[in-house]
Amino acid sequence: xSTFYYSEKVSLFxxxxxxxxxxxxxxxxxxxxxxxxxxxxxNVEGGHRAVIFDQIRGVLPLSVSEGTGFxxxxxQTPIIxxxxxxxxxxxxxxxxxxxxxxxIYLRVLSRPREDKLPTIYQTLGTNFDDRVxxxxxxxx
Length: 140
Description:
By secondary structure, this protein is of the alpha+beta class. It is built from three helices and seven strands. Strands 3-2-5 form a three-stranded antiparallel beta sheet, covered by helices on one side. The protein is rod-shaped.
């Protein structure tokens, strides 16, 4: 009777081992999907574009439009840029012919060209409008 009891315990342990192995595989699958979802996918909202910075090749020449994109983790980084028209008010103090100082407020609607986004990011960065537009206000 004791050998029968021992064989039942062994078969129970084998069944438990198989169940736990299946749970372990399922856990690895869920962890893999979580890694892909968290590190390999990125989302570009409407009115935005993504410029991809690659650790090996630098800034890639094409921008990515709206939607979900795929990136290589730890090698590629998406930089999300706003391409919608934005109003900006530029204040400029100028002098008149009769030597009076006049405040001029210039309202400018600006947006970057979509095909030039990689070049804009390389030369000016993400705050390109803060660098370019004040100099335009002084010219007017």
